[in-house]
Amino acid sequence: MKILFEKADILFGDNLDVIFNGYLGIQDDKIIYVGEDKPTQKYDVVKDMSDKLLMPGLFNSHSHAAMTLLRGVGTGFPLQEWLFDNVIPIEDKLVPNDIRVGNQLAIMEMISTGTVSFSDMYVYPVEQIKAVMDAKMKINICRPILAFTPEDFPEKNERFIESLWLYDNYHNHDDGRIRIDLGIHAEYTSTEDSVRAYAVEAKKRNANIHVHVSETIKEHNECKEKYGKTPTKWLKDLGILETQSQFAHGVCLEDEDLNIIKEKGITIVHNPSSNMKLGSGFARISKMHDMGINVSLGTDGAASNNNLNMFEEMHLAAIIHKGNQNDPTILPSKTVIKMATVNGARMQGRLDTGVIKTGFKADIIAIDFNKPHLIPNINYLDSIIYSAQGSDVCMTMIDGFIVYEDGKFKTIDEEQTYNEVREITERLYEVYDGKKR
Ligand SMILES: [Zn+2]
């Protein structure tokens, strides 16, 4: 199948240059042509993209997608109370099918706001994989380990066994759209023995590791009191940073931590909505960027956000640090767009996407600029960051397949998903018609 987009403005190449009124050709899952001149080859489908910008799809680098079913739970509480007193009691009621449905809802929200791939950490991963495969989306998924006491580990720890089983059975599944990471929930939910043994398994597989690190000052300082070192140093000493890793949040990282992160090539996933909503603080993103650390962006789960809209994360990442540091020159639009695209792809181990260029995967979105809040459009990069909304996305293509176009979902039954979500939320919250019984 060959598709040609014509009369399109295109955010092209590693430097995000703009081609005006150009052509973008796709064959199967790859980009085969980008340019100002009409290609001579024949195409099966030609689409007029007047008033639209084609840009690389977005990579949501940290999420707990099925938490769409817990959207807004625990609003107003700090992280520890939010998690242990509000979120976990509802999560305890979740059954495997809920995860499939919660993911369908999350995927609808993500693909309709321009996300083509996400990195996720939650429960019942096989149900999640089903939902992602049906939707023809991309995911890096892990089953994070938890261990609270030395007896929790290793041979008896079901999560540990399941986590490795998932990797060994599903890594690079579905034409590579499904990738498996190893996952550690966090230092404060792990034991040294469990992490040390996990590091050995990660190294054997050369697996990517996804972990929450130094999200709050409480967590960070308690680790220092308990072990005499920061969570980053603790992970390093247990051997966990020998393969590619990604740290979600990194709000309270110290200078020494940043040096380790730089040296080990770790990606920091910045989640500005979640950090602001939970009052966790400002990660030192511009310093990380200046040091050459790979920084990507994530939404976190819908209970601490409350949406999965990467345009909002780009906007917040661009403005909150300028305000906090009294400096409008830091984190320019191009830098932030790269965080949401190629930096996320690189973190996921997907080196053939995140940029529009020939030979790369056709993971592309279109933004409709024929909107009042996008006119006049003086600078595309700034318009994307400061003016555009997730709802301006009018087409999302993943591996050359259009999964969303003009408000229509091509791989998910919208009405059926809403009905299933309603049934589940009635059970989880004992509500009827939106009211508590
Ligand atoms: Zn998280």
Keywords:
Urease, subunit C, domain 1; five-stranded parallel beta sheet; 37% helix; 2 domains; alpha/beta; 20 strands; TIM Barrel; 437 residues
Polypeptide structure, described:
The chain is globular, with a radius of gyration of 21 Å. The N and C termini lie far apart (53 Å). It has two domains: 2-56 and 360-409, Urease, subunit C, domain 1 (Roll); 58-347, TIM Barrel (Alpha-Beta Barrel), CATH 3.20.20. Helix content is 37%, strand content 23%. Strands 1, 2, 3, 4, 5, 15, 16, 17 and 18 form a nine-stranded mixed β-sheet that branches. Strands 10-11-12-13-14 form a five-stranded parallel β-sheet. It has a four-stranded parallel β-sheet with strand order 6-7-8-9. The mean pLDDT is 95. The protein has 437 residues and is α/β, with parallel strands linked by helices. A hairpin with a 4-residue loop joins strand 1 and strand 2 (17-27). Helix 2 (96-111) runs parallel beside helix 3 (125-135) and helix 11 (310-324) packs across helix 12 (333-340). The site of zinc ion (ZN) has 5 residues, from loops.
